[in-house]
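Researcher: Quick one. two chains, 634 residues in total.
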Amino acid sequence: MQDRTDEALFFDDTYGLDAAAPPSSLWRDALKRFIKNRTAVAALAVLLAMVLAAVFADALTPYGPYDTVLSQNKVGPNPEHILGSDENGRDILTRILFGARISLSVGFISVIISTLVGAVIGLLSSYYGGWPDMILSRVMEMIAAFPSILLAIIFMSIFGRGIQNAVIAIAIVSIPGSARLIRSVALTVKENDYITSARAIGAGSMRIMLRHMLPNILAPIIVNATMSVSGAILSLASLGFLGLGVQPPTAEWGYMLSSGRNYIFSASHIITFPGIAIALTVLSFNLLGDGLRDALDPRLK
Amino acid sequence: MIKYIAKRVLMAIPVIWGIVTIVFILMRVFSHNPAFLLLGQHATADKVAELTRYLGLDQPIWKQYLIYLGQLARGDLGTSLFTKQPVLTEIMERMPATIELAVFSVVISSIIGVTLGVVCAVKQNSVLDRVLQVTGLTGISLPRFWLGLMLIIAAAVRLKILPVSGRFNFMNQPETITGFMLIDCVITGDWSALGSTLRYLILPSLTIAVASIGSFMRYTRSTMLEVIRQDYIRTARAKGVAESRVVSRHALKNALIPVVTVIGMELGGLFSGSVLTETIFAWPGVGQYIVNGINNTDYAVVQSGCMLVAVIAVAMNLLIDILYGYLDPRIRY
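Model:
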């Protein structure tokens, strides 16, 4: 404490206040609000359970995702196969658990990519304005003028099935949405006095964008990213259903639905459970996103 | 206003051109030569080369691109490699099916969605509001194609009350006048065909509506909550206007303006064909047509189909903006 100068003391935000009182930051307040939202906490718990189940899938089930027992095909739910078996006698619960690995990782990775690219485009557009904004906005409009599933279908049918291509296709179609959102919130932040003062004391463009603008638009970015994961999981399932997702016989939810579709009249459990898995995951991400929005931006409540 | 519209139309040109170019590059540079598909797997190399030359695909890519742009400029959208029909004709034949399904679903979902949204806003934070909120979000979260299959199992197979696929009954269809079956039925006064056609519409439109109802409901709720806090609502209540009238005349009218935008965007999206719904119900619409084109590497179908879809999207956005200015006189372009 001895080496503290008067100046440091002056800028210390506990100066003159009760030092024992915990500092209350935006994020801490948000956390408090989030914990009070029971639905959102439940959604988070479901998602955490799902991640754990996906990671420890091998230990949770005695079967492998590709173990075929042809004599036991299309049997309904029973003590041995809790959710029944599919047309090749594979255990459906096992395939759903292994499918969670693919859906969750494709969802996360594609959203990370689209959010990062969207943030770069949105920040550059809003910061520089003028013709860079004009060009970037028009390019985003071009991609957005396509129905996203159609663009993803074209991409997958040309470059071929596979997890990596699916991630790229889904990321590309979700970039315009995140770029547009980030641009619009960044535009409002840019007008704040602290940006002007940062520029006045000589901060460079990079520093203003990354240190002053980005932290202040992080909340809507996080909410949007959470909601986008659900969109990405739905897109992957749609591609899988059309036969354009992962390589068969990979255990992926959309592909499970597409191969089980032929038995919808004779063994409807084959398509019922993977669909419920998709719906539950997507719903949880949406509820989590709702909860995060209410927590991070109380004005919207 | 006219100046604004002209400016928007001019700005749409580079966007459309960009889409045309992107699809052209994807299809012609990266995808396979359709000659292989057309001739089958036993084709000789000579035959493939001959057909490639005939289709003009042996030309340098920039030349193909210029030829293609020239065709578009003359309003020629090309002919399908497989059916040999002009793509424009084929798309126009399928457009009524897509539009009929889209309009029918959106009308149903906006009536239900907006009503439920108002109920939620009026009873904010009540048990009913919470239940409807989660139900709506569940509707949005269901994969549409899976919901379609579940509806088929429930309504068509278990209960045997509704047809599972197709657009009409061959034994009971109206004379084709406009291509819009419901309208044709009414014009010709063929009421039994109208009943039959409506039954075919129920499952596909319900599949689309479940998600739309959820999103319209959530959107109406949030705009209603915003409007209810305005001063003019307090004024209306203070001067003794009945609460039901405050909600219906003062609040809803103003809250609906942004909702109209969302409904218009949904409709625009559906006009380009709901690919998965059309696939599941064998609905003969535009979405299915383009996807078949993609699977067949049918250049003209994919290129022109995507261009039309993009034109529709851009035009819908413009229409919504104009409508917005009309509904809300404070907005001036």
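Chain A has one domain: 53-65+92-300.
Researcher: Thanks, that's what I needed.
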